[in-house]
From TrEMBL:
Keywords: Disulfide bond, Glycoprotein, Membrane, Signal-anchor, Transmembrane, Transmembrane helix. This is Glyco_trans_2-like domain-containing protein. Pfam families: Glycos_transf_2. The lineage of its organism: Eukaryota, Metazoa, Spiralia, Lophotrochozoa, Platyhelminthes. GO terms for molecular function: polypeptide N-acetylgalactosaminyltransferase activity. It is a single-pass membrane protein; Single-pass type II membrane protein.
Amino acid sequence: MRRTRDAPPRRGRPPGLPACVCHARQKADLFQANGFNALLSDSIALDRSIPDLRYPECRSQLHYRRLPTAALVIPFHEEHLSTLLRTAVSCRARAPPQLLTEIILVDDASQKPALGGPLEAALAKHFPQSGFARVLRAPKREGLIRARMRGIAAVTADVVIVMDSHCECGVNWLPPLLHPIAEDYRTVVCPFIDVIDQETFEIRSQDTGARGSWSWNSFHYKRLPLLSESLRHRAEPFASPVMAGGLFAMTRRWFNELGGYDSGLDIWGGEQYELSFKIWQCGGRMLDAPCSRVAHIYRNFMPYKNPSNLGDFITRNFKRVAEVWMDEYKEQLYSTNNEEQYRLVDAGDLTKQRAIRERLKCHNFEWYMKNVAFDQPKFYPYRKPAKSLTGFLKAESANR
Ligand SMILES: [Mn+2]
């Protein structure tokens, strides 16, 4: 298929072409398999031009002449080949070459044939420099969390940039992530995440940014409004209590001092809380950098299954995080969710995680709530559930 940089959708805009009827079936199959329009992705250049969605003042923002080097870590499971390649190619293309020194892809036991030989061949073609881009292969499904750890362990650069496998990096995305890290190795920086439309591949901004948080009754990621200071200086990085999860930059040194992710977390779920809480509680900080933009394909459904032999791993993950980091606040989580389930689930061995908290003399959760997530209770308050009764309900006789 012909792929040029000017092929539709031009500069990240929708193609505006009639749908190709001849491909309708193929398109539907690929959409089902990926959760986005993978057929269209195949017709778009890997290095297509995209709109610059940054604030105009980002263009004149200054960065240190000397910044730490960075490695891109991209874990993937059954990702579509062209979206995976576009992640690597676009991030490489819009980063200063001296700063992005390696790309590590971690294949979490994918079965798609294209992710074997064809991926290796494409990487060799797009990244001819020996050793610059390589693929690590997990022999069996590890899940997102341990796949990331595997990739991070292989990094030699100063800073690890964790990236989702269907992204496109924006104009000059890397220096704004590295600048705050150059000032303090315990600062973790997240880019702004823009939207790649799952149907048209149009790129548009999500909003003007927000701080990360959660709701007690689901432990889902939620957002807190920006503070007045960042409204006045909208291009400046601002503190965020919780990362969205998929994209962040962090020094290898700080990641390792924190013991990485808790390796007892399975597949996905809770890992962004675990890392965010310990970054803050153990003496680091977390920032969002508005001048670093990375676009991501949001999907409406997961095109692949979770392993069926792990039981309720999400509740177990949440419980591990709560037991180690949240002190008495864990009761707010348990009591507003399926409390019985939380009590029953075995969180497993937590001694290693508790030892990290002990060794680094980390703040307690009360400190975190007072100093970092101080407006959380205002926007996502804890509501003690009404006492319920247990027993049997019996229908009254109908002929009353
Ligand atoms: Mn994703």
